[in-house]
Amino acid sequence: MMRAKPLIYLTNLTHINNNIPSTEAIPLNIGYLATYVKKVLKDQVEVKLFNLHLDLKKAVDEKKPDILGFSNYAWNSNLSYHYASFYKEKIPEIIIVMGGPNYSYKPERQEEYLKKRNSIDFCIVGDGEIAFCNLVDACIQHQMNVDRVKQERINGCHYMQKEAFIGNGLSERLKDMTPLPSPYLEGVLDKFLEDGFTPIIQTNRGCPFSCSFCCCGTDYYSRIAFFDLQRVQDELEFIAKRVQSPSLHIADSNFGMYSRDYEICMEIKKIQEKHGWPIFINVATGKNSKERILKCVELLGSTLAMSVAVQSTSNIVLKNIKRDNISLSDFWEIQKELRKLGGYSSSDVILPLPGETLSSYLNGIKSLMEADVDFIEPMTALMLTGSPLEEEDFYERFGLITKYRVIPRDFGVYEGTNVVEVEKVCVGTSDLSIDDYLFLRGFHFIIYCYYNSEVFKELIHYLKLQDCSIYDYCYNLLTNMNESPESLREMFSNFLSETKNELKNSENDIYVRYSTDDNIKKLLDFEEGSNLLQKFYGIMMSYGFVTFLEYGFDTARKILAENKIQYSTDEMESIYKYIYESRSNIFEIDEKSTFLEVLYNVCNWKEDGYKKPLSEYKRKMKFEFYQTEEQKKIIKGYMKQYGGTTDSKGKILTRVNPKSLFREIKQIK
Ligand code: B12
Ligand code: SF4
Fold it and tell me: Which residues' Cβ are closer than 6 Å to ligand 1?
């Protein structure tokens, strides 16, 4: 017997480890579905949203839903299906709906996916609003009779009918975003804001580019639809009044590419002045709008963690992956301006992409370092379900070697079942061997710890002023690792063996491995399954700090000597002590200040932008190092959100500009 008003539960479940949710963003996806369905079907339905499985369980125990929807992303696919089958078994009449980008666009794989997951009644493909709403409407019309709903052949709604796979194409996309009410302003996301999840807004939807490694790179997403500007402003104001998290995610694929993006930045600036939020903004920039990107950075300064992703600097690779990159000269100019304005720049590079060689990859890293990019985000190539990389053609043409690994933090034990998310990665091609891949991962370790961390900033500027190439310095740190202190050698060798061991030959190998209590415990204890770069970065910033510092300075002295460059040991010592006092143990809350006496005024040298040699700042100085109340608040907030493991410390350092956690300094004399 159907209820007078069907009850819909929509979920965007996240794994939880040590009580910390892996997915920190507010579930905007299901928020949109909820407001659209409510707008169209009005009081005919009741909708509730969940991102935590325990909240869902409590709600189901209190009142069983008629329709239960699950999102399907790489990071929650198995978790969602675990609960889909769990509830289907408990309540067979419940209608289970899946939706989200982690679904192949190839019909034979779609069929395979649905055949293996017989608890799913319907799978929505593409943007969910219209198709999901049509499905709910049909469920109401047919009194929740699944067989009759299947006769409707709703666009974008896939399913199995008896033994046959029925794919009804892709769902219709909204041409204009205005009819889609804001989930923030409608209040459906309030509880997630209150619980400290990171707000995510979308100001436009779609992407005109067609990068092969990305789920948004298909024709389906090529048309851009904009949300009304006033509504974006209202959302920001609404969030600012309620938010707990210091950050904001913007889900746009190409921020800065459209003229109104500058207006959005002006609004953010106003909100910042009024509410002191957001402190950090994570967003991906557009590929062809240098002037506007610069204006945005000028306005928001270091708040805006601008990711100007290059992925590769090789033209051959870019052509192979159909990537329409920002031109390298524009990229250089943006970096130059960012430096002037005190902004923080980051750039992603993917290893290995089709056609990349060891030397072209190293050249790419070299040009990013020469362009003074603050943060180089080196990523292993993901073979994402739903992206054009799924084409067999790619495998054959470029000799792709693929492996499988656990997605960091996305695992857990639910109702006694071990649930682990898996990603398929590319670790070699006909142009770059697996050994090259492992060697370059070692380089990523160096980049993360010595280049990205900002810990060695003063040392790096010192070397630059002595005409030392920073790329050569980093390369030396890698190739001379066998001369480093024993504890660092051990950490590096652990990093490499963990990098090798995380790769498995098949998805099933991972499921088998983590089906035992002993092995799943290794994941839960963060002995395995971490983002290794973040984990070792976290190690450096906690107990490994002094060892890394010493090796960094020893290698610097060595490279200066090898290049026959004169330097002063006192200058180096001043920099060493300064770095130590300002950056050691940054996750601890300082009760008291610390004091330091040095022979050079490193502080003034830095304030002057390292333009002149440090020798011009020779002055006996006393500095006081302390944490501001704001820093203490940020550290406490993030430790609460991400936890205190070395792995989570690494993750925090990718969300905030690390500089903002370094101790403040007062000059005493
Ligand atoms: C912001 C963002 C992030 C943020 C926040 C992500 C989060 N966990 O919420 C950060 C930076 C943390 C992030 C991290 C990662 N991300 Co990300 N991210 C995005 C981005 C840019 C926007 C996501 C978003 O909110 N979009 C807005 C919503 C409204 O769109 P949507 O997600 O597509 O939802 C619509 C439909 O899919 C559908 N739908 C969705 N859920 C449901 C549920 C039901 C029941 C139904 C019916 C329909 C439905 O309807 C929605 C409305 O139309 C997308 C790309 C993009 N432009 O969408 C990538 C994207 C989602 N990310 C992706 C990936 C791979 C990752 C990482 C794994 C990358 C990495 N190696 O670290 C990590 C995962 C971290 C984690 N464990 O959470 C992939 C996912 C691919 C896949 N096959 O699942 C995407 C698609 C980008 C890509 N390269 O292709 N990401
Ligand atoms: S990587 Fe960025 S630019 Fe390329 S298709 Fe995806 S969203 Fe668009």
Answer: 10, 22-23, 25, 28-30, 32-33, 69-71, 73-75, 97, 99-102, 124, 127-129, 132, 200, 202, 214-216, 249, 251, 253, 282, 382, 384-387, 410
